[in-house]
Amino acid sequence: MGKNTKEAIIAASISLFNTNGFHGTSVRDIASKAKVNPANIAYYFNNKHGLLEYCLTIFFERYVAEIEEGYERIEQGATICLKTIARNILFFQYENIHLTRMILREITIDSQVVREIMSTYLMKERFYLNRVFERGMQTKEFRHVTPDYMTLQLKGLLNMPFLNSHYMSEVLHVHPNERYFAEKYLKEVDRWIDGVLCRNEYEPAYLAVN
Amino acid sequence: MGKNTKEAIIAASISLFNTNGFHGTSVRDIASKAKVNPANIAYYFNNKHGLLEYCLTIFFERYVAEIEEGYERIEQGATICLKTIARNILFFQYENIHLTRMILREITIDSQVVREIMSTYLMKERFYLNRVFERGMQTKEFRHVTPDYMTLQLKGLLNMPFLNSHYMSEVLHVHPNERYFAEKYLKEVDRWIDGVLCRNEYEPAYLAVN
Amino acid sequence: MGKNTKEAIIAASISLFNTNGFHGTSVRDIASKAKVNPANIAYYFNNKHGLLEYCLTIFFERYVAEIEEGYERIEQGATICLKTIARNILFFQYENIHLTRMILREITIDSQVVREIMSTYLMKERFYLNRVFERGMQTKEFRHVTPDYMTLQLKGLLNMPFLNSHYMSEVLHVHPNERYFAEKYLKEVDRWIDGVLCRNEYEPAYLAVN
Amino acid sequence: MGKNTKEAIIAASISLFNTNGFHGTSVRDIASKAKVNPANIAYYFNNKHGLLEYCLTIFFERYVAEIEEGYERIEQGATICLKTIARNILFFQYENIHLTRMILREITIDSQVVREIMSTYLMKERFYLNRVFERGMQTKEFRHVTPDYMTLQLKGLLNMPFLNSHYMSEVLHVHPNERYFAEKYLKEVDRWIDGVLCRNEYEPAYLAVN
DNA sequence: CATGAATGAGGGTTCATTCAT
DNA sequence: GATGAATGAACCCTCATTCAT
Q1: Taking the C1' atom of F9, which residue's CA lies nearest?
Q2: Which pLDDT tens digit goes with each residue over B22-62?
Q3: Is there a single domain that holds both residue D165 and residue D81?
Q4: How far is the CA of A40 from the C1' of F17 (A)?
């Protein structure tokens, strides 16, 4: 039953890290929720931190894959490419909402290990996005911008809905775990690309992504 | 010397909560950094959580004050008003970068107390922003938008730079603790207001805020 | 207001020691209940233990006085004398029910200081009771008994009702803080003296004590 | 080695609770005396209070069993039955002198949990004793008495020797931990039953219990 | 592959007490 | 007489982890 035990631990840890944070969650909590013996965590992940690293890795592995998948459209134009990347990220995060929130929060902690893992992947992210921005500027699709500042804004837009889920639902009455939200919010991000990034006259015929 | 002790505890806790998170910081760490006796934390704030609540309160008290101060410009037009609010928030957060980062992270945890404090202030924030968005739509300054979605985007833009300071500096080579950054980033936010929110033809004569 | 402060501390401490025990009561609890500053306890009684010693002393001072007052009737006969002593103790304890319970419990703890204070007074108690028992045996009022065993039994009878007040009220439905109880229980003790101690034929004409 | 650890903790706690009281004993004291790690107390008994509850339970479980065992003699007559019960209690307490003293003291504290545990068992005790008293009155063995008052006296007599062990030895020079004492004191209790409770002419042929 | 017993370190908090004012 | 600030020690408890089975 090794597979089940390991999977159960991962699922429980994502849920609990998401709710209480890494430091706010004990290995006993995780083991209890996963209905396994606490010693199994050491067995499969060395220690509690190894479990976090595992979660970080599977998240970023797939996160970067989503970006790479979108980047393949670069030849179709920077705008379409960027919109595809944004769409991929948004839906990936929407489909893994708990893991996403947990990761986005944990990487704000100044931990040596977290920083190292994160850097590798986020350097890749930066690399692809920069390439897109530069391509867009080169083809005159985009206005002249500072790529890193654009990355910053784009990430701000894409992460915001997943960081504060109870703020979203209780204050804004917006529910990020509903498909409807993801669809609608994607349009907002597209509008940001069109309105802030693209140089063409405003309100162009919307560029379909699919 | 009560004032000094209390202030020292607050300063130390902001610094440590910022670096290691609330749960990752022990009261002994705080007391040690503040060079006071650990029992003083219980003396002044009842317990560790009371210290967090105190930080939350002073942050949001001033945060909402910044919004209210900007809102007073509502009669000068929604665009100017919103830009002033954005400016106020951005510089307030820039000037309290550690406290801001700590708060932005901590409020993502599902804590009862945090949620209560947060709701009070964030409801006010939503109230004022909604009024501005509605005013702008009424005066035809703004396009037709869903206010809560705009709030979401604006907050995403304004919070992003303060959430991951080492990602900012190590990956993007952008330094949010420098005045230059705040000035430049403000222009980006203004561009978002102009490009995404305002209905007038793109690239207008930039509206000065001050 | 020195008098009030001191009195308030004593009253509060008797109440709290009675309910929670000496170790289960903090000086802050006492100060809070007495509505005085905790430092006053050190001022008036040196430390927390000094407060307990003070309570012990005032209790036993008066306790022994009650015995001595009863012992003065020795010339009227051992039976009358013993009944008077029993009556005095019973009513003294009934009138100081909280203090009594607290003391009776605290003296079961193996504390050096408590032991010393206690010994002094309880040696006196033993002295007087032994004299009464011996006089009774000498005058043939009492059967031949071992005085210390009689002391033990008498004390068992006299202390029992004050030791477990909530057992008394909740299990036995007997209320030791009512005058009626003290009157009735005194008759029981008299019956013990008559039935166990006295040699005369059973059920004698009851000897009035007053 | 789970058995040994648990047993060692129980033995150490009885000894220390007996000497210093529950509140006067720290878990470190207990662990140190038992030569085990302090965390084992939480492991086996949840917390310090759970350890006390455990002691209370094992004490009263056996205490009530002693009473029930004596009650089986009810058909042989109330006097014999009551004497058997008294004998059983006395020897049970004599054989568990430290546990007994600890329990007798702790139940005088107004603790919610203690009260609940206690009530259950002491209600049973009252039930059986009342049945004996009523039977005795019915068969004219006993005089007309108030059962609860008799219970009170009997418990006073049976508990007294175990409550203040150092008073006993240092003041009265009586040693309750010696077999001789228990034998002799039992005769005193029998005399109380004969002299106070039984209606037959005084000084009957002593009823052997065994 | 999984478990329950056991550990040592550290957690937050409360304690009695001191002392300048 | 009385206070509030401050302390250091100790409190109970939980922690992540280890290890024999």
Answers
A1: B39
A2: 999 999 999 999 999 999 999 999 999 999 999 999 999 99
A3: yes
A4: 11
| A1-17 residues labelled b (16+ CB within 10 A) or e (exposed) | eeeebbebbbebbbbbb
Residues B62 and B23 placed together within one structural domain of the fold: no
> Which chains form contacts with chain C, at 3 or more CB pairs under 8 Å?
D
CA to C1' distance (Å), from B206 to F21: 76
Q: Are residues A100 and A187 in the same domain?
A: yes
Average pLDDT per block of 10 residues along chain B, 210 residues long: 85 95 95 95 95 94 97 96 97 95 89 77 96 95 94 96 88 90 95 89 44
> Between residues 46 and 105 of chain A, which touch chain B (CB distance below 8 Å)?
101, 104-105
| Positions of strand F less than 7 angstroms from a protein CB | 1-20
> What CATH number does the domain containing C80 carry?
1.10.357.10
| Pair B181, B88 in one domain | yes
- C7: domain CATH number? 1.10.10.60
pLDDT of residue C201: 52
Task: Say which DSSP state C148 is in.
Answer: H
The minimum CA-CA distance between D16 and chain C, rounded to whole Å, is 10
A147 chain-B contacts, CB cut-off 8 A:
none
Q: Please compute the mean of the pLDDT values over residues D104-109 and round it to a whole number.
A: 90
Q: Which two tokens stand for residue A126?
A: 């930066």
Q: What is the count of structural domains for chain C?
A: 2
Phi, psi of C142 (to 5 degrees): -100, 155
Domain span holding position D22: 1-45
The answer to whether the Cβ–Cβ distance between D21 and C192 falls below 8 Å is no
CA-to-C1' span, B114 to F7 (A):
31
* Min Cα–Cα distance to chain B from A130, Å: 10
pLDDT at residue D2 in the model: 64
Supply B11's token pair: 């300063």
Are chains D and B in contact at 3+ CB pairs closer than 8 Å?
Answer: no
Which B residues in the span 102-121 are in contact with A, Cβ-Cβ below 8 Å?
104-105, 107-110, 115, 118-119
pLDDT at position A203 is 43
- Residue D200 predicted with pLDDT over 80: no
For residue A208, is it within any domain? no
Confidence of residue A207 (pLDDT cuts 50, 70, 90): very low
pTM of the shown model: 0.88
What is the Cα–Cα distance from A56 to A54, expressed in whole angstroms? 5
Q: Which chains have at least 3 CB atom pairs separated by less than 8 Å from chain B?
A: A
Amino acid C176: pLDDT: 87
Whether A39 and A54 map to the same domain: the answer is no
Same-domain check for residues B56 and B83: yes
DSSP sequence for C17-85: HHHH-STT--HHHHHHHHTS-THHHHHHHSSHHHHHHHHHHHHHHHHHHHHHHHHGGGGG-HHHHHHHH
Name the β-bridge partners of C198. Answer: C142
Q: Which residue type does C90 have?
A: L
In a domain, D206, yes or no: no
* Alpha carbon separation from A13 to A3, A7, A33, A108, B27 (Å, rounded): 15, 10, 9, 18, 26
Name the residue in chain D with its Cα closest to that of C119. D171
Q: Are residues A147 and A182 in the same domain?
A: yes
Residues 6+ apart with CB under 8 A from C184: D149
User: In this structure, what DSSP letter does residue A173 have?
Assistant: -
Q: Do chains C and A touch (3 or more CB pairs under 8 A)?
A: no
